[in-house]
Amino acid sequence: MATSLRAAADGSPPPAPPSPAPHTSPPSPGGWRSRLYRWDLRLSPYAFVAPFFLTFAAFGLFPLIYTGWLSLHRVELGGDAQWKGLENYTDLADSAFFWKALSNTFTIGVISTVPQLLMALGLAHLLNYRLRGRGFFRVAVLAPYATSIAAATLVFAQLFNTDYGLINTALGWVGFDPVDWESSKWPSQVAISTIVTWRWTGYNALIYLAAMQAVPQDLYEAAALDGASRWRQFLSVTIPSIRPTILFTIVVSTIGATQLFGEPMIFGGSLGVSGGSGNQFQTLSLLMYEKGWVTGALGQASAIAWVMLLLLLLIGAVQTLVSRANRRKLGA
Fold it and tell me: At 318, which helix (H) or strand (E)?
């Protein structure tokens, strides 16, 4: 503006305004670059997630659908498939072996999951306080989870050996008779549940510990001011605050118990596939393996697999209903 005033005072014309910067016009809507840009914008996300879906379709979805197809047929190893409809499922409903395996799966799941989660809660509660050497203890409780199933089961099989096992030796020191841990129903299931509990307690304890550390300290301080002891704080503050995590571990542990295979298989030795001499610890997974690869009845094994899938879906549905009920209570 000062330049314009000086030009007006001198009588010379004002300078011309500066020309605008050159502007590159976007490509025409019908150009090939524009179309390529739109295709890249639309298709790139699908290209990024395509490897996962292709892998899932090849190794997850296809085996699931094919197993469902086999469950509707009579299939022997090396033979042709013959249509049977729902006959494999009705045969399972009439099979005493199936109901016994289902009962064993349920009882082993209960006597392994309940003590496991209770001890995990106690360990997490202890590790949540400022203990000397907390880092060492947190690593130590996770060590059993890092141990392979085969190694852990072989060690416990020696401990529970009827003739020379350390457990029976210790029972003899206090005046008890030796227990037949392999041939009796409840002792064998307790022994297998002990292996499962030993391997997974530390893992669940660290999950609970992570949830406990997310609980606001103000709640504990308010409870302490009200005169609540540590036990009362645990029951009234910690447990309600980590209730979703507890529900999650219950569901995951139940799913793991439904699929229990390695521990009873190795614990039983040569009779591991059949779950002992009297099928006293045969689970659904062992029965499925026996039907498919010992007797060669792939159709019946596929039917057992789909029954297990339906059980897991039922567990998931129950978990969803319980979660919704908890959210409604918290919202109210």
Answer: helix 298-331
